[in-house]
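pipeline/complex-builder :: batch 7 item 3
reading input block
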Amino acid sequence: MKPVSLRPNSLRLRLFAASATSIIIALVIAGFVISSLFASHIESSLKSNLSNQFDRLIAQIDPEIDIPTLKAPLADPRFQVPYGDIYWQITNVKTNARSRSRSMWDQEFNLEDKTLFDRKLNIANIIDPEGTLAIAFIQRLQFEKKDGSFRELDIILAEDLNNFYKATKEFRFDLLRALAILAVALSLAAWVQITLGLAPLSKIKQDISAIRTGSKNRMNDNHPPEVMPLINEVNELLDTQDKSISFARTRASNLAHGLKTALTVLNSEIENIRKSGNQQSAEIIAQNTNDMSAIIDHQLRLSRLKTRSKADHFATPLLKNLNRVVNTLKKTPRGAEIGWHIDISGKIEVNLDEPDLLELIGIIIENATQWANSNIYINANTAQKHINLIIEDDGKGLSEKQLNLLGKRGLRLDSKGSGTGIGISIANEIVIMNSGELNFAKSSKGGLRVLIQIPI
Amino acid sequence: MRALIIENDKKIGASISTALELAGFLTVLEKDGEEGWFLGSSEPFDVIILDLGLPTLDGLTILKRWRKENCITPVLILTARGNWDERVEGIDSGADDYLVKPYRSEELVARVRSLVRRSTGNAAPNIVVNDIVLDTRQMRVSRDGQPIPLTPQEYRLVSYLMHNNNRVVDQMELTEHLYSQDFERDSNSIEVLVGRTRRKLGKNSIKTRRGFGYIMEDEND
């Protein structure tokens, strides 16, 4: 699996950050709501239980006796256990006589706030015999005795809140753990979802890469429907670009063809002018038609060179294409007179598009054919990242000044160009575009030695 | 020598035709690719000049068809595009030479002559049979260094027989290669032409093989 790019502007990171933030916010809110609901539920359950106990307590009070007394003990066994978390206390308002549950042991409720003792039921938080917070039902009630008189009693029923707080705390802790696990699971699900959602982008990338390297002309039509409008737009753009390039090339080609046809006719007229005795005019016209032809040739050949990116890689066989060029030249009268000495062994492949390789070696070898006395020597050796292709002839060669001009790195002859320089200019363009090098020197065979370094 | 020119541009076609006729060739000019392919397939030519940029049927397709049909006539291709992949493709498709437009007429004629010579196994521009020398570049025939004045038709006869030296050439073949299609073929004309040329070159220069044809053969072989 390829490592995932997580640069700050990464679409994957942005989508994941948004998903993770949403998940965390949603879970925090859910945590608060669930926790509150739980607390509220426990509290209401507690109050409901206390209310029932309070009713039972009142029902068991015997109003005839001065000291408040229960007719029967309350069912909840916690009332019998010292500090049993649930307590009651009844006080005779008139005599201040008190009775209390066994759970209160030797403690009493002495509430300072006397307003709590009125005829309506009050619910308040008080400190219980254990010294902790408790919820209490407090009410002053009037009981009618058999003799028709009334007895007023202050009744307190309280339950320790420790259990409530403990249960709430434990629930929150469990809830937090559950929500944390849920957050991780949802985040992973979001990551998977984003990965699956973005998967078509890598296919689009592959398609675009294939178009760039020339192995495809258009993007596939099997992308998800959501991205198809984009794919269709890109395909239309590619079609338009292809049409424009094709149109421009056809126009350039037609223009060149038309001009060259006219120049060919003009050349035949030059012969007539020459034969009519006007040598000077014939030479002037001939020189100009040559220049025009060279300019047309230069621009036409430049328009056909393939622009390439670093991602493009070719494995073009050198020897096969070298032989094709040499065989082509051998067909010409000049090439047929040359002794060809090719010393290349093994399978050498170069990182150059085939038409560009043919153009490059064709220009250099044709140039050698033109200037050689009778022999051309071609050999090649492989270096670390390139091959050295050496082409030498046994002609008269070039002067130091001419060599310096030719060998200048990155030489781009002016756009007008002229004469034989056109071919070398094209060869230079090809090596520059393909990270190669072209060097000229005097050959030990007598003529020119051209070293072409081509990336493997 | 008969040359077929397939070139859609009228002016260029005419200029090639003129240049080759001045060089002693009989020419047939065709502008249409399909017609040109048919002519090349069905009639004997010594050389074909084929433009690659033909409108109906392109030159490379015509060339490939000829080679597939085992037509071995030497072909010189003309192209306006000088890029190497097209030149190589032309040669790979069976062309014998190529010329990039614009060219000079002398260059075209020299290439055509060279092609014809090479196709008959004569590499050098001068073809020698015994003491007779045919200078293909100067269109001159000499014997023992002395130029022999010949009419264009006589020159064509000597040129054809010397290009095909040591091979018996029958009357039909000579007629096809020395006269244009519209020429009224009379069996006597060749005999008269051979007789007249023989008188100028020498009695044993052109030998008659009765029932077969004529031959210029090297006596040293």
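note: Chain A touches chain B through 35 residues (CB under 8 Å).
queue -> next item
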